[in-house]
């Protein structure tokens, strides 16, 4: 579930990553992995690399026992962060499948947040990590949920001027990341006052558990060496229920909820048609349950298929800033 930009991505990676490329000549220091590996900022995270030369986009790579490789994180700062002395709300923005932590920099997050007082944290979540601790991995630890919730969030609050509270945080994402946002908001109720899902699944069990099967197949093929997120051939049913947004409706009460799913994918693109139709049906099921429970939400069903819609991302960010505690 992703929208790819392979040519631009390859060029940026060849230049050492978008953040590093844009940072060239702006001063500051880039720590090599060997020089930075000794730096331990607590919460089980060791900084393996960092680049803070760009005035806004700061880049980090971490060593953690929760992940068998060093995941990257981009932290986008407000324009006035370095001189204002203000404390800021934080948006955790989660990428889709087959994407990574630079996805939203490629898509335009700097422009969407220009002049706006919010910190945006964009972490790796595995190419098919599903923002979960897998039932089984054949390639070492891939505990993305533990990394994000138990390590990254406390590290961000300890190292940046953030409101480390419910009304100071939002979580949003695209596709797999939209599911991750809904899951995190429900399972960790006190962490996020706003949740947004841009073309992200909201119902795991519908249509014979199609999304669970998709998570298992993609994670096993791409990230886990044949392991799975939810277990195969038999699911960990308790884990599926705990992660399933439509089974956690009361956990969304008193939150800002923003949903996006397309209605008209290109009929010749079977992947887009199947993917976005499943997302749309699941979000409609989720919305119906929210209405029945008296929980307000915003829902957008634009034309088109499974893609990041820049205008709705911009609208969402504006709504997040309006809802969270002000800088």
Class from secondary-structure proportions? alpha/beta
Total count of strands: 11
Helical percent range?
25-40%
CATH superfamily: Alpha/Beta hydrolase fold, catalytic domain
Largest sheet: 11 strands, mixed
Straight-line distance between termini: 34 Å
Question: Low-confidence spans: pLDDT under 50, at least 5 residues?
Answer: 1-39
- Reading the helices and strands in chain order gives HHEHEEEEHEHHEHEHEHHEHEH
Q: If you average the pLDDT, what whole number results?
A: 88
**Number of spatially distinct domains:** 1
Organism: Actinocorallia libanotica
Signal peptide: 1-38
Protein name: Acyl-CoA:diacylglycerol acyltransferase
Family: Belongs to the mycobacterial A85 antigen family.
Which helices and strands occur, and which strands form pairs?
Blueprint: H1 6-14, H2 18-23, E1 30-31, H3 33-36, E2 40-42, E3 45-51, E4 57-64, E5 72-76, H4 81-84, E6 90-94, H5 103-107, H6 109-112, E7 119-123, H7 144-159, E8 169-174, H8 176-187, E9 194-198, H9 206-223, H10 237-243, E10 256-260, H11 270-292, E11 298-300, H12 310-323
Parallel strand pairs: 6-7, 6-8, 8-9, 9-10, 10-11
Antiparallel strand pairs: 1-3, 2-3, 3-4, 4-5, 5-7
Entry summary:
37% of the residues lie in helices and 17% in strands. It contains twelve helices and eleven strands. It has helices spanning 6-14, 18-23, 33-36, 81-84, 103-107, 109-112, 144-159, 176-187, 206-223, 237-243, 270-292, 310-323; strands at residues 30-31, 40-42, 45-51, 57-64, 72-76, 90-94, 119-123, 169-174, 194-198, 256-260, 298-300.
């Amino acid at each position: 579930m992703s929208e790819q930009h392979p040519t631009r991505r390859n060029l940026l990676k060849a230049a050492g990553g978008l953040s590093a490329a844009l940072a060239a000549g702006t001063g500051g220091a880039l720590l090599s992995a060997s020089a930075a590996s000794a730096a331990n900022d607590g919460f089980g995270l060791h900084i393996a690399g960092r680049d803070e030369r760009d005035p806004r986009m700061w880049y980090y790579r971490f060593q953690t026992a929760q992940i068998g490789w060093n995941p990257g994180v981009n932290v986008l700062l407000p324009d006035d962060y370095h001189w204002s002395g203000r404390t800021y709300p934080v948006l955790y923005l989660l990428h889709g499948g087959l994407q990574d932590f630079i996805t939203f920099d490629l898509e335009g997050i700097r422009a969407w947040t220009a002049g706006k007082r919010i910190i945006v944290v964009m972490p790796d979540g595995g190419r098919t990590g599903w923002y979960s601790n897998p039932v089984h991995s054949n390639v070492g630890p891939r505990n993305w949920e533990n990394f994000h919730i138990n390590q990254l969030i406390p590290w961000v609050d300890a190292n940046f001027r953030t409101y480390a509270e419910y009304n100071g945080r939002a979580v949003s994402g695209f596709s797999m990341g939209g599911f991750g946002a809904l899951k995190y908001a429900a399972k960790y109720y006190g962490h996020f006052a706003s949740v947004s899902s841009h073309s992200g699944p909201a119902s795991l069990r519908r249509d014979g558990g199609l999304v669970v099967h998709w998570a298992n197949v993609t994670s096993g093929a791409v990230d886990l060496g044949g392991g799975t997120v939810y277990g195969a051939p038999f699911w960990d049913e308790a884990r599926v229920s705990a992660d399933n947004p439509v089974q956690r409706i009361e956990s969304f009460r008193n939150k800002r909820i923003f949903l996006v799913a397309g209605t008209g994918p290109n009929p010749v693109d079977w992947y887009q048609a199947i993917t976005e139709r499943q997302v749309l049906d699941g979000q409609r099921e989720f919305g119906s349950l929210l209405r029945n429970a008296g929980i307000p939400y915003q829902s957008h069903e634009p034309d088109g298929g499974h893609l990041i819609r820049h205008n709705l991302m911009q609208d969402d960010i504006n709504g997040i800033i309006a809802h969270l505690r002000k800088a």
